[in-house]
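Let us work through a complete example step by step.
Step 1: write down the sequence.
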Amino acid sequence: MQQFLNWRWFKGLGGGAIVDLGSHQIDIFSWFLETPPRAVIASGGTDYYDKNHEWYDTVMAVYEYATSSGVIRAFYQTLTTNGFGGYYEVFMGDQGTLQLSESAGMGRIYRDEANAPDWDPWVKKGFLTEPIQEQKAAQGDAVLDVRESSGPPAYYGIPVKMTKKYHQPHLENFFDAVRGKGQLNCPAEIGYETAVTVLKVNEAVSAGRRLEFKPDEFKA
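Step 2: predict the structure and record it as tokens.
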């Protein structure tokens, strides 16, 4: 869902890292859940850079989504002073966890052994690769503490490879649309909804409280 049109638009709007960076990932929440958020609460500030900066260099936000399956909460943060962990999206359910990223090799899916059915059929159909064992540090004679939640013993790979440079597909789609050879993967309407979604974060930080979205806010 990271689209060239979005990037150009938000760079013009401004709003700090949460808008410039977060817009490319937060819109995936609405795409995945098929509904815009109903509320957001956020904390942030100019914690590192010169206090004369207009927008926050650090932001942590929690969105609420009302879906047919119940309320779902999504957490997003921007930390502009540390690159640990890279960038990715994680979807956690009661049968597994899906991790997605443009970054090569970071896409993977974890099966919850206690709740998930057998995934071998999906491997045989080519939707998943064979499970790969995680590397674990040797524990010697230590015994697992019963209070510790054990992590998944392996993850399944996603057999989709990014063979082009990260932004190349966005540029190709944009130019194809300009030339009348295709449709935008991210039309202006989606870009507008995403702008509303991310700009509300700065308002929530300033207000210091939970803010709700009105349905008509997502309509241009």
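Step 3: interpret the result. Residues 4-83+187-214 form a domain with the Dihydrodipicolinate Reductase; domain 2 fold (CATH 3.30.360.10).
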